[in-house]
Inverse folding.
């Protein structure tokens, strides 16, 4: 039986559409935002893998600087703010509120866990209206190691006195679920976009395209 | 004094232009190839970070499958071969032959080290005409852990009985140099394209845009 749900934030609970729109104001190629995000994730994984830590916002900025240089475009402070500022104002996906309500009814704890800094996480929870709906929340600032490295999953389990097999991670990122699965957590994939779950990563225990359906399966799990 | 030079292969010694041209046959958006490569690197780093290993070619294929799915395009076996087959036939950059010759004259050992499989590495060395110019070569197949994790750098040092401070890694990838630097190797960045060296990675000891100039600096180093 699942007693706690950990939720990834960016792209899992929060819709990145404003970020995509911001990139669209400076680039016509629709893959630029994907390239930037993938470059950012690669850098966070490299840094975590080499046992270092840097604020995710700083890494976002460094990746953005490179993308502008690669395209011979000037990145002004205004543009930086226009693009990266969207992160603080991302709306929750439509299915999130009902999903969290169902968890509350079922008396299952709700804990967002994110690679973003604690400051960003607080801002995101406040702006999206999710803050009052969660039990607590953690940024990787607490362990200074990005997901999908084990430090974060282990920290939350210890801090909240959770058993791994009674805890599920809900995420739209296969690499995040892969890391959590390695630590024995139950994993639930919410498919937010058309792509392929990496066939070489550990498979999720559950998979859905609508968060309320996924939550129903989590409530009934085992 | 530097006694051995380790060379990264893809994009460092070998020119990825044929790969970019192949993507151009299926996508108009010039960022697709960058997105795909970044996605591939992210997956190799995630897998290495979680202590697993998969052939780099298989990861290349998985990333390609996702990119086609994301674009509602059908990926036939012919297209797969057309794109990924270019990897085996990449030419060396113009400055490579003279650079390797200078190292030979200076009696410095030349050792390619790559994330590609051993089979791919052999094919690349043969097709590019570099095979007879190198002393030996290693794929991460030997350690089953991708660069930039320490296993590969440590393996080559031990296997070849090299001192870290007499060994330099030449690469165009900041993340590779960062990993090598962490293990105490000297690092030399060959800038092959316009982008930003990640400001949060350890800086390289040397940096040049032409390989022969970089090699001259390596020969005179310390």
């Amino acid at each position: 039986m699942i007693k706690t749900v950990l939720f990834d934030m960016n792209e899992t609970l929060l819709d990145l559409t404003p970020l995509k729109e911001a990139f669209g104001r400076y680039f016509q190629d629709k893959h630029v935002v994907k390239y930037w995000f993938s470059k950012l994730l690669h850098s966070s994984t490299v840094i975590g893998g080499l046992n270092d830590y840097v604020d995710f916002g700083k890494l976002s900025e460094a990746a953005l600087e490179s993308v502008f240089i690669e395209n011979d475009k000037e990145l002004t402070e205004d543009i930086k703010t226009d693009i990266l500022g969207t992160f603080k104002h991302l709306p929750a996906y439509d299915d999130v509120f009902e999903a969290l309500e169902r968890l509350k009814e079922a008396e299952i704890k709700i804990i967002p866990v994110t690679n973003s800094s604690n400051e960003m996480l607080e801002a995101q929870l406040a702006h999206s209206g999710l803050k009052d709906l969660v039990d607590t929340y953690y940024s990787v600032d607490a362990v200074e190691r990005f997901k999908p490295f084990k430090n974060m999953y282990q920290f939350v389990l210890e801090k909240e006195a959770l058993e791994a097999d009674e805890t599920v991670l809900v995420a739209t990122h296969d690499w995040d679920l892969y890391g959590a699965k390695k630590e024995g957590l139950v994993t639930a994939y919410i498919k937010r976009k058309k792509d392929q779950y990496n066939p070489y990563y550990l498979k999720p225990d559950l998979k859905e395209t609508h968060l309320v359906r996924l939550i129903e399966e989590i409530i009934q799990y085992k």
About this structure: Chain A has two domains: 4-15+90-220, 17-88. The interface with chain B takes residues 29-32, 34-35, 38-39, 41-43, 45-50, 52, 54, 58-59, 62, 65-66, 69-70, 72, 148-149, 175, 178-179, 182, 193-196, 198-201 of chain A (CB under 8 Å). The radius of gyration of chain A is 17 Å. The mean pLDDT of chain A is 98.
